[in-house]
Amino acid sequence: MPSSQKPDASDYSAVEVVELHGHIIDSLLLPKILDEILSRGGIYELEHMDIGVLPNDPSYAKVKVLAKTTAILEEILETIHDHGATPISQEDATVEAADMDGAFPEAFYSTTNHHTQVRINGKWTDVQDQEMDCGITMDTGGEPRCIPMLDVRKGLPIVVGHRGIRVRAGETSQRKGLFEFMSSPVSSEKPKGVTVREIAGAMREARAKNQKILAVLGPAVVHTGGVEHLTAMIELGFIQVIFAGNALATHDIEQSFFGTSLGISMDKGLPTEEGHEHHLRAINKIRRAGGIKPAVEKGILKSGIMHDCVTHNIPYVLGGSVRDDGPLTDVITDTIQAQELMRKHVRDNVGFCLMVATALHSIATGNLLPARVKVACIDINPATVTKLMDRGSTQTVGIVTDVEPFLRELVTELRKDVAV
Amino acid sequence: MPSSQKPDASDYSAVEVVELHGHIIDSLLLPKILDEILSRGGIYELEHMDIGVLPNDPSYAKVKVLAKTTAILEEILETIHDHGATPISQEDATVEAADMDGAFPEAFYSTTNHHTQVRINGKWTDVQDQEMDCGITMDTGGEPRCIPMLDVRKGLPIVVGHRGIRVRAGETSQRKGLFEFMSSPVSSEKPKGVTVREIAGAMREARAKNQKILAVLGPAVVHTGGVEHLTAMIELGFIQVIFAGNALATHDIEQSFFGTSLGISMDKGLPTEEGHEHHLRAINKIRRAGGIKPAVEKGILKSGIMHDCVTHNIPYVLGGSVRDDGPLTDVITDTIQAQELMRKHVRDNVGFCLMVATALHSIATGNLLPARVKVACIDINPATVTKLMDRGSTQTVGIVTDVEPFLRELVTELRKDVAV
Amino acid sequence: MPSSQKPDASDYSAVEVVELHGHIIDSLLLPKILDEILSRGGIYELEHMDIGVLPNDPSYAKVKVLAKTTAILEEILETIHDHGATPISQEDATVEAADMDGAFPEAFYSTTNHHTQVRINGKWTDVQDQEMDCGITMDTGGEPRCIPMLDVRKGLPIVVGHRGIRVRAGETSQRKGLFEFMSSPVSSEKPKGVTVREIAGAMREARAKNQKILAVLGPAVVHTGGVEHLTAMIELGFIQVIFAGNALATHDIEQSFFGTSLGISMDKGLPTEEGHEHHLRAINKIRRAGGIKPAVEKGILKSGIMHDCVTHNIPYVLGGSVRDDGPLTDVITDTIQAQELMRKHVRDNVGFCLMVATALHSIATGNLLPARVKVACIDINPATVTKLMDRGSTQTVGIVTDVEPFLRELVTELRKDVAV
Amino acid sequence: MPSSQKPDASDYSAVEVVELHGHIIDSLLLPKILDEILSRGGIYELEHMDIGVLPNDPSYAKVKVLAKTTAILEEILETIHDHGATPISQEDATVEAADMDGAFPEAFYSTTNHHTQVRINGKWTDVQDQEMDCGITMDTGGEPRCIPMLDVRKGLPIVVGHRGIRVRAGETSQRKGLFEFMSSPVSSEKPKGVTVREIAGAMREARAKNQKILAVLGPAVVHTGGVEHLTAMIELGFIQVIFAGNALATHDIEQSFFGTSLGISMDKGLPTEEGHEHHLRAINKIRRAGGIKPAVEKGILKSGIMHDCVTHNIPYVLGGSVRDDGPLTDVITDTIQAQELMRKHVRDNVGFCLMVATALHSIATGNLLPARVKVACIDINPATVTKLMDRGSTQTVGIVTDVEPFLRELVTELRKDVAV
To answer: Is ipTM > 0.90 here?
Structure first.
């Protein structure tokens, strides 16, 4: 069978030598890169390897990549570049002026969310505002910076190709806790206690460093009875900014307005059908008041997550979607404007992100976050968690669980901290 | 289009008049029966109808069923019979002697789990030991009784056909709580608090009537950290009998034996991979001791669900399965013997059944329970809950949630009761 | 126990008599209404009932609703009104002038997606542009018409309260096929052949009536290899309009552009990781060309769903979302504008809607469709199907299955038709 | 923070040097082992490392493992031993006589499903009948052999401890296709065509080597309409043995017996409710005939999977479960007997295993299969696939898809082969 034959290296005329630094073995980067080379039709020779003797020591590998055509080689190099494999031939990055507004030159370098450096005049410089699926421009001070496609203006310098760019994917130090170890969702069959404690710990750590905690929330937070836990987290100082949509805000406000009718249903022990009228009447009331803040100030809206955001000066971005009823006055119906505002908040010192019960807003936020921001994603639907982690990166911990009990435990854990 | 034409009743020469009693409108029985008639190729005329004026008043309907052939009519009658539609022509049931061991006569009447009556000598008598998918025999005292296929012995009297048999499907009184209203699983998006309270209430009610509570448990009870909640329920007197498999018992015992190793992992905040050795060593230890009870008595097994079953005299049935490792000495490897023992327990005054995180044992138990026993089925996988409810009946409340937090809340709720 | 006691009618001083017309028994409307009355704290008396003798005959019921307070009674009446229970006291609808832009008067009537009539000057008139979660205005000709909240302008007449409005929920004629019978998703355990045939039949029927077929598509259509099936359906004339998002269009275009790279992976039999660069490069290319249509005209985009939309003059709405990369030039980033355009298409003679693998756009479309438009929703995730059906109505058939094989079978079935 | 401090090696007094051979980098074994050491409280030093220069070259690593106590060290060694890390100090295995029937000595070595060798008199010998969760005995010829716990008899020699035992986990050669690359389920969002081709290829390969193909089947094979595909596979010679339960066989037979009634429902385009009577009557008929084979011979059972097994001399094991109705005469109700028979078949030259729509029987079979047998597991429920892969090993390809369309494509692919 041909597959067991040794490939004839003489067929593989396109060659490039790449190098990798960091925790490339225990972070699985080296194996991943070797896989990518083989699966895309290349072969490799490991030219040199220094393995860290102790767990904390970084490793180093020099890998010769061979392919049958230059096109295949380029594709391989592009792919493994995202995992931190940098061509050894050290050249400066190539910069090209944008030839039109709102689009990159064809050969633009497409970013990951990992720490990236660009070589300019022989010097490696960190890219600012690291964000995936962007290009890199050079700002007026000559510093490289991520730029979304839409923000490109004709004449702006844009980095093209992938020479002179290196991704520091293997730089994270020795893995020692949940956030370093997990590469797959925490199954619903695993004990949750430790997970909750780890997340509470990461939140405390972020706050201790004066970093902000971002909460991304879906309507199931309200449906499952989690409003009180979110308001407790706001009160305790563990939420500094909220991203959500029309639905979360509407159902939160609906619960505040129509408590009595829910009250009746609670008496009878019946999960009420979500009355389609109530949510529309809630939106109508807010629109009549001129928005959430005016409704709070006029004493119309008296409790709930959105209410507490207003009274605690927690900024929120309610991003619009095509399925919105109403929507609430505060919803930003233009999705690009919403993204811009989300981006502004994300870049303003966010150190931890809690995503609860929303695929749409979680993926939107994941697109904007640099890989160094820890993320915890909670959903009862394993598909949501998997989808996020597929698009996300090693910094995400996905937990398949019921939302309300999880939030209750998290608040209990966070309170402990406050008590101490 | 032909479907909009009025069917010509003269084509429908096979005719039978059936009647229905009870809460046939609000329990959806009448609509279901009319659906069945149409979908199986028949037509109907509603000959007479008395609707209860007040909610508690029973209703009555007389329906003429017409079909093109006797075969189709018979099939329709068989199907709607299970929903309580009894042919109006009152005849005694037909009884035939079994012609061989271990199988019914071809024409045997196949039971449902609803209250059923058989007409003998002009008198309607309740069927004893009501259980689905059985036949009906007449015991020595002349009373009708459900009998499994395997227990048939040559010569035993077996009820055949469906004349002289009536199913009291519409008899449940006015629906007024969770157990009466729910016909679909409690979604993971619904608040769980009320549900937990309803279940706790149903458990208290069963205990107040001196009925037994049966717990059917899967290994995720242990995996998710639920052991302490189960032992609390045993302690509080809310579990009188347990059905499970080798896995639940093994993991419970493994946790008791190898606490220290789990301890280390807890320190480090890491969900440990379930060591395949530990569960095998746990089984080996129990086999060496001669079983769970001897292991408890010799001081080898000191805690956990199985331990507490022994110390509190809670009987358990560990039903074998082809995927069992070991198995533990206490596992009944013959599935028919296990069923027999389960049947014996189910018939011994069980009034409530809590099914947690096991499709296999839950469906097995559901097969044995009469429709009057309330069932709560808890699983994080909606497919499991749906599958059980498809096979089960209106008495089952299915809850899609994470197991451990649910059990924690249930215990908190049950303790309240004890305090009062 | 108090619950078994007969409620004392003298406590129930708030009274209203309602009536129901149509197929109220086999469509389960009457049972649902009785349930609602009881579960919201009311009681009822069935004052009069005429049951259709034959399956096609409509029925009639007169129900006295009693509650302890007027507030409870009003809530019950509001709820059951949506199911077609109209107060018997015939009054004209009340109309009030809007007191501000962009919001209804507090007491506005909130619409369902069912056929609705308004009583004006003693005459019942059909509401135009039926859509759920809207209000009703009177257009200049005096005809009632659904109006979204955002479109309200100060001074516009708005229907308030629920007197003089009736919902014809029970009007659908005798149920005789998949679309009439299904009230729960088609389980993944059921045979799919018949379902596919039924859907193909409904699509042929719509086309035979010159109605348009609307396809609502998620990116998994492309991921699973379904592009060729969609283009076949366009070719065969079974798609007249498409709703989707940036992702579907991008991945469709990416597949067209980077077929070679996918080709390589196919050779090696490896499901390639979705390269994050490719989709961004695809978007960039389209933006550089000035949009999808220019890219087709310039010969840049040569195949795929979006290409075929351009060459076959199939209009499409690409609704923006906060998670969009790029986005493509054609994406309508303002969600309200996108909704408006979707609404315009929906009202333009759409007779059938096929929703595939997208929760977001499917729910958005479901919000706009009147109940008379048949909908088939296909997704491998049961949660998506359930969520849509919860919000949708009896006209939706939900099918839990793998997308690509389903589409392949559907095309095979549709071709048969063409052959004949 | 202490975690960033370098651990003081002097605290780590318990030391052992282990070595690893094979494809330890691209098979992720080395990273996994380093992880395990750290997560269980140890530290490591990489003493020596030879990395294969070319993809096919094996690698070698010598790792010093340090722990604070001997107990922790032992636990680490036990865990990493299963991944192929063997203590460098070469000693013979220790053998101890069993002290009782039906249980191992406390210190028994617990097997994995990987190729294992035992050192006896200085010579490494392959373990026969490799199977996970067993012990190792020495047969009369002095060869090591896996033995289930239940088969232990007092006095039998049993290997204890883990010295003198090595696991060849890293031996699989260069990964080059689906079966070598996949470590996670094939998502429902991935194209299935290639997957089907790979599986067909593996089945052809097994047949070309005269190996047997084992099919493990759940009832959804019948429910979804897959009977004809299975019988085609039997006809084409791609199934040599079947494992299933009472449900698969019963529903297959039910479909054969009651085709007409299904026929009617097909005419009307309605997915019929699975009649509970039909399956019971099917079982009864088979019991009356004396089993499946007699029923075929007497002309009672005329088609279906079970029928074709009889006419093609395909052996089957129907393993009993506590949820079985009836059961069929052929069901082996004792689960230990069923396991024994399954074990006998598995060891008789099975080279490929296809698991479809059953968690119970798939896990049972996975327990018995050595890691060298390729496995494809198909289920629409991702939880089932994940559960199997968690327990299984690198040889399993899990595919989340709808069963019937998958089987149809597989048969189409297998027929191509036959044509060529």
So the answer is: no
